[in-house]
Amino acid sequence: MSKLNQHEIIPLPTDIGALANRINMSTRKEHDVVNKSVSLKFAVALRDGKIYRQGIQGFYHVFKTVEMLIQQELQSDSKSKIGGILSKFWDERVARTEPLTKDLLYFYNNDPKKFQHPIRKEQIEFVDHIIETYKEKPHILLAYCHVMYLALFAGGKIMNSKLAKATGLFPQVDGQTTEQVSKYGTNLYQFNIEDDQILRASYKRDYELATRHELTEQEKLDIIEESKEIYRRNADMIRGIEKHNREKITNKLSYKVVVYGYYIGILISTFALIFFVRRLINHLF
Q1: For residue range 108-148, what is the model confidence (pLDDT) as tens digits?
Q2: Which of 157, 205, 221, 250 makes a 20 to 30 Å CA pair with 269?
Q3: Residue 31, annotated ligand binder?
Q4: In CATH, 6-254 is 3.90.226.10
Q5: Which of 32-41, 134-143, 182-191 has the highest mean pLDDT?
Q6: CA distance 272 to 150
């Protein structure tokens, strides 16, 4: 695909009626909260592969659930309104379930049982929320199509660059550099096309053209509200990982305190006993 001409760039930033622009303007607060949280936690995750894989595992279940529902809509014999809209802009090249599966297999030593199902409370609740809300309002899928996928285009290259230089994050392979090994665990950010910015621009354009006239105003408002919920629940997942790892560290420290306290207690008791015996002997003799 050749580079898009200026007149093909849709929506323009000044188009206040475009659904994508309305989502962006309405979710600035939620976006900033997640952005700051991700930036801080990402710096920590770069030093610990176990924390990083916990993070992408959460996103894996979100993408997997959303893409399952998208395919359900697209493959339905009786094409629904949402299925019709999706067919006009959805591009399989942006799907992330398969790339994330490759990343997680690498980080979990080819053991899919370690990540096949959501584990943490926040992950389970997020997946349940997507499925239950979709049943009532199938158009909310379009919120995920904007928020989750365009975020990868926007920040994926930056994260990928940082990951490629992160020493100690990736399980090492004999004879390969960190940069070479990193490619096994960064498929999430790879689109395997010549220019992913062209894919991004065409995806945004087709999304806007497909949604502009096909949705009611109430459906658009539902999508905007769900976009806020996506950011909130992403923030919850990140906080859940932070809490889990903090508790692990605390529990390890508590265990050490208990063990060390036990032996220190014995030592103090021994000294006290010796001191008491010495006083008793001195008193008697």
Answers
A1: 999 999 999 999 999 999 999 999 999 999 999 999 999 99
A2: 250
A3: yes
A4: no
A5: 134-143
A6: 68
Give the Cα separation of 251 and 95 in Å (integer): 39
The single-letter DSSP state of residue 112 is G
Contacts of residue 226, Cβ cutoff 8 Å, sequence gap at least 6 = 133, 137, 140, 143, 144
Q: Which two tokens stand for residue 102?
A: 């490759």
In the numeric block, which tokens belong to residue 167?
């020493």
Q: What is the DSSP letter of 77?
A: S
How far, in Å, CA of 263 to CA of 86, rounded?
A: 65
Q: Where are the domains of the chain?
A: 6-254
Which tokens belong to 175?
A: 């004879």
Report which residue type is found at 17: G
Are 200 and 4 in contact, with CB atoms under 8 Å apart?
no
Omega within 30 of 0 (cis) for the link into 11: yes
